[in-house]
Amino acid sequence: MKLDKIRNDKSSIRNKLRKISTINSAVILLLCWLLLSSTSLLFIKNYEKRNLELIAATLSTTLTAATVFEDSYDAHNKIARLGEEGMFDSAKLVTDDHTVLVEWHDHQQENGWYPRLLREWIYVKPLSVNINHAESTVGTLTLEGTVTGAAEFIRYSLMILTSGMLCVLIISFLLSEFLHRGMLASLRNITSSIHYVIRSGDFSLRIPESPTREFQLFSDDLNSLLTEMQTLQASLLRDNQSLAAKALEDPLTGLANRAAFVARLSQLLDRQFAKERFALLFLDGDRFKSINDNWGHAAGDEVLKTVGSRLSALAYKNDLVARLGGDEFAMLITSRVSEAQLQLLLQDIHEAISQKIVVAEGTQITTSVTIGYAWSQHGDTVESILERADMNMYKNKGISKVQV
Q1: Is residue 150 within 8 Å of residue 164, measured between CB atoms?
Q2: Membrane-spanning regions, if any (predicted)?
Q3: What residues form DSSP beta bridges with 372?
Q4: 228 and 308: one domain?
Q5: Residue 401: which pLDDT band, with cuts at 50, 70 and 90?
Q6: Which of 31, 107, 157, 276 has its CA 20 to 30 A from that of 68?
């Protein structure tokens, strides 16, 4: 009698577990159905709106000539061709002087309550885009989107989704009496995996499959979250690397900044050998302040960018061009090892910089730079070679002022 009672008790527990599992499965599947249904509706809404915007943008471009010349025949053919393909329900093309060139309607569109309600929900109001020519608006194109495809998509999606959910619910009910066997093992796998991720910070771990439906759904969600976290971790690493690179870059010219220049100079001084040497060039603008005063800071920025671009064009692969700040530039030249080669480079720099620079509204500006340079010497420090080049530059700037 006791054994029968124990068996009955076990059977009662098994039935309760099966009921609990079935109820949980039904609730989860219902929530999934609502979530997927909402997602599908939002997706098709955004898709249809975006599709209509793309069609309007493309069509407005093709209708520019017809609108400018008020060629209603050509405009009607282009609109009707897309409209008959089911791209939209109606279209209206109006010129800037309110002349209606084309007014096209799809006479086969559905007008029942369902299409009408769906159209009001997706589009809210007709889409209007301007048709521009030569930076001016020459007309307006108004489109009313079609809901034929969206209606079919929603209808069949809900049918398939509902049928799929019902099938899963039936299967879950039939297998519910076996689910309790793997509950503890599945829960142990999930908790141990989460603890491992928390302790190690390794998001590459994936939770193994579970025979229990609820835990499998939970595992799938956690695996998706781990995948997103792994992607986010990789993205943060890339962003940090990008920020580190930008920390060594001048934001205006895209050249190396002072920090990158000093780091490269230190490397060259540390590894130079007996027969190796390099040249350090200081370049200072001669009339940058007057450019800012006369034409504004935007013109000054354009001049700095052009100077940096021209210097980069004269540098070889292993050379470095940097902007130290203001109108001060510097170059580390490792590709020219003789004085004659360096003098040719200085001449090329003066010729390149002296060419006119065209800024906003076609204004032409002429500028120049004063260059001071120093060859590297054994025993040099960053400060010593910088000081020699700087003194040479100011010496040349003084000479140029006397000549003027």
Answers
A1: no
A2: 21-44, 153-175
A3: 282
A4: no
A5: very low
A6: 107
Angle between the N-to-C axes of helices 113-123 and 2-62, in degrees from 0 to 180, rounded to the nearest 10? 70
Note if 327 is an active site residue.
Answer: yes
Q: Which amino acid is residue 201, in one-letter code? A: G
* Per-residue tokens: 267: 């490397």
**In the predicted model, is pLDDT for residue 22 greater than 80?**
no
Task: Give residue 229's pLDDT band: very low, low, confident or very high (50, 70, 90).
Answer: confident
Which residues, in sequence order, are bridge partners of residue 331?
281, 321
Residues 7 and 127 in one domain: yes
135, 263: one domain: no
Exactly one of 97, 327, 348, 390 is catalytic; name it: 327
> DSSP characters for 125-190?
S-EEEEEEETTEEEEEEEEE---HHHHHHHHHHHHHHHHHHHHHHHHHHHHHHHHGGGHHHHHHHH
CATH of the domain at 51: 3.30.450
Q: 105 and 23, same structural domain?
A: yes
Backbone angles phi, psi at 364, to 5 degrees: -105, 130
Q: How many domains does the chain have?
A: 3
Nearest to 282 by CA among 323, 310, 254, 249: 323
In this prediction, residue 345 carries a pLDDT of 92
Q: Which of 28, 150, 170, 36 is nearest to 88 (CA)?
A: 150
Which of 236-245, 316-325, 365-374 is predicted with the least confidence, judged by mean pLDDT? Answer: 236-245
Residue that is last in its domain, among 99, 115, 150: 150
Share of the chain above pLDDT 70, in %: 85
Q: How many CA atoms lie within 13 A of 103 on its CB side?
A: 4
- Residue 293 CA to chain centroid, in angstroms? 38
Q: Which domain holds residue 204?
A: 171-245
- Residue 29 or residue 382, greater confidence: 382
Query: Are 302 and 357 in contact, with CB atoms under 8 Å apart?
Result: yes
Confidence (pTM): 0.42
Rounded distance, CA 299 to CA 307, Å?
12
Angle between helices 258-271 and 382-403 (to 10 degrees): 120
Which residues have C-beta within 8 Å of that of residue 53, sequence separation ≥ 6? 127, 129
- Residue 28, domain member (yes or no): yes
249: which DSSP letter?
A: B
Supply the mean pLDDT for the chain. Answer: 80
What DSSP assignment string belongs to 350-375? Answer: HHHHHS-EE-GGG-EE---EEEEEEE
Give 301's contacts (C-beta < 8 A, 6+ positions apart): 252
